[in-house]
């Protein structure tokens, strides 16, 4: 059983590995593995994660069963969008997907931003499983997102209660 808790600096190497493994499992069929390595090296490095961990008005969570970190989520209040929390990352190791870890991480994140009226995210436009997950959790498409590394994204938003 996995429990959601706040990430610590000691978790960062395991989170970096989780992000790389999950990214390759999700995107290698769509993009070449070298591109995914390049993205992971920049966005999923321990140094990048450490900067997120230290971020203000942010939450960095992990799903931990005492042996393995099976998932992670990171969100922060937007610096430009009024009363909007931005979900930057929500990843679950492939071996643990479809077991409620993503749901539990997301449910915890929703409670972490009491002054946010909505949550926004961008998801890779060909990641049908992620889009379906977010739609099942109340997100609706809001148009095109910003391309990252030549990868097109869809912006999605949800009103928070």
Automatic annotation (TrEMBL):
Sections of the chain in a coiled coil: none
The protein's name: Ribosomal protein S18 acetylase RimI-like enzyme
Domain of life: Bacteria
N-acetyltransferase domain location: 2-161
InterPro entries per record: Acyl_CoA_acyltransferase (IPR016181), GNAT_dom (IPR000182), MshD_Acetyltransferase (IPR050276)
PROSITE patterns: GNAT (PS51186)
Origin organism lineage: Bacteria, Pseudomonadati, Pseudomonadota, Alphaproteobacteria, Hyphomicrobiales
One Pfam family this sequence matches: Acetyltransf_10
PANTHER family for this protein: L-AMINO ACID N-ACETYLTRANSFERASE, N-ALPHA-ACETYLTRANSFERASE RIMI
